[in-house]
Model the fold of this input.
Amino acid sequence: MRSFTLHDHNSAPEAAKALLEKSHKAFGRVPGLHAVMAESPELLNAYQALHGLFLNSSFDADEKTVVWQTINVEHACHYCVPAHTGIAKLMKVSDEINHALRDETALPTPRLEALRDFTLAMLRQRGELEAGQLEAFYGAGFTQQNVLEVILGLSQKIISNYTNHIAQTPIDQAFRGFAWEKK
Done:
């Protein structure tokens, strides 16, 4: 299988150079995922846009982490689970939530568990939910806006998880201490 290039400012296509600079400014370095995505400036641009939009969603830090990590774990993404573990720590998400998501064990609140259940249903059923599944989500205090924001999070994570599977993106040094394998 061909290896994917981890681009830097010198090797990236011209249209990706400003995007890599944006990544560097945001993270203090260019994450490996972004370095791979630079091969397609359009993909990197879309990913950065979706990431920014999801960060600005109505979900709080715990809820964003539940959506991201539920998808990452379900997809068994060797890169994103450790990366989002580190990101969650920076966002002040508790270790209890982080461990529950990584280990697929009970989350500390019924509301967060409902969010994980809903996210998994959306993912596994490809959006073909039954009325009772939506009502259970609403019953946990979520809204139609939240339904659509889960779809936004799914869109972002499909791009990153699939890219990492295909490219076998190496885990960034900053996240190697959070390495993970699906049980």
